[in-house]
Amino acid sequence: MRLEPDHALIAVAGEIDVATVLELDQILLRARDRGANRLVVDLRDVTFMDTTGISVLVRWTRVARRAGFRFTVIPGEGAARRVLDLTGVLETLDLADEPPVAEAECP
């Protein structure tokens, strides 16, 4: 995670599934607790995502809209985009093409 004064970039690599989704959720919570008003989740290096990954993205989108902060997803062109597109979720997320800051790895 890379935390800037007003936003955080969370670059995810590998799989988002039942074994890893809690870590992603906790990273997002930490970023909000540190004052980020915009969370950007970069999925370009995701190789697999199951329904738990989809669920966390949808939940954070809803939370952000209710709480008044921005939650943006960079879907990339790989596995994450395909699964989000096939499930119809892609059109419900706030999307970005590029990160607002230099890329960083998740801890």
Describe this entry's structure for a reader.
The chain contains three helices and four strands; from the N terminus they run E-E-H-E-H-E-H. Mean pLDDT is 90; it is low at 101-107. Helix 1 links the parallel strand 2 and strand 3. It has helices spanning 21-33, 51-67, 79-86; strands spanning 2-3, 7-16, 38-49, 70-74. It is an alpha/beta fold. The chain has a single domain (2-92), classed as Transcription Regulator spoIIAA (2-Layer Sandwich), CATH 3.30.750.24. Helices cover 36% and strands 27% of the residues. Strands 1-2-3-4 form a four-stranded mixed sheet, sandwiched between helices.
Features:
single chain; 107 residues; alpha/beta; Transcription Regulator spoIIAA; four-stranded mixed β-sheet; 3 helices; 4 strands; 27% strand; disordered C terminus
3D shape? globular
Quote the distance from N terminus to C terminus: 6 Å
For the record, the CATH class is Alpha Beta
What order do the helices and strands follow?
EEHEHEH
Tell me about the largest β-sheet.
Answer: 4 strands, mixed
Topology:
Elements: E1 2-3, E2 7-16, H1 21-33, E3 38-49, H2 51-67, E4 70-74, H3 79-86
Parallel strand pairs: 2-3, 3-4
Antiparallel strand pairs: 1-2
Put the structure in a nutshell.
By secondary structure, the protein is of the alpha/beta class. It contains 3 helices and 4 strands, in the order ββαβαβα.
